[in-house]
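Aim 2 progress. For Putative manganese efflux pump MntP, the working sequence is reproduced below.
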Amino acid sequence: MNIESIIGEFFTLFIMAFALGMDAFSVGLGMGLIKLKVRQIFYIGLTIGVFHIWMPLIGMVIGKFLSNTFGMIATLIGGGLLIFLGIQMIYASFKKEDEPLITPIGFGLIIFALSVSLDSFSVGLSLGIYGAKTIATVIMFGVVSMMLTWVGLLVGKRVQSWIGPYSEALGGSILLAFGIKLIFPI
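Predicted structure tokens for this construct:
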């Protein structure tokens, strides 16, 4: 393999990882609109990065044995989770209590990371069928998604102070819209 083909393959993987990571950025932007500490932002990005490694890896392994139909089911589940989280955030923004039902901490963080990374599972299924280079692919997916999540969360945190009490409703609306987009692609 010559250097040009290695660079071309790396660039292709980066573009694919960037495209997959944009959902993590978008959802991070919405989730960043609730009050989060920098430490929480770090752990959220790290967790989503880990999920973007494991989910496509599992998908690649299963992809060698299953059809693309299962990938659509994973996308629908991810969209449903995002819709649920979005509705929950919108509802919590209208309540007097400060604490939402699900926060990106503990089990809530697992649900959040799972909903964001289910599409990478679907891509992993496809890549498994076509025999992509596993280690390079999943590491690229994880690192890029982690970085984009951090950027989205930090931008959301900055914007949150500008729009005040409406920030959580706006964040929930973003998650809701992204979940609908996953279920009903245009």
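The radius of gyration is 17 Å. This observation will guide construct design in the next reporting period.
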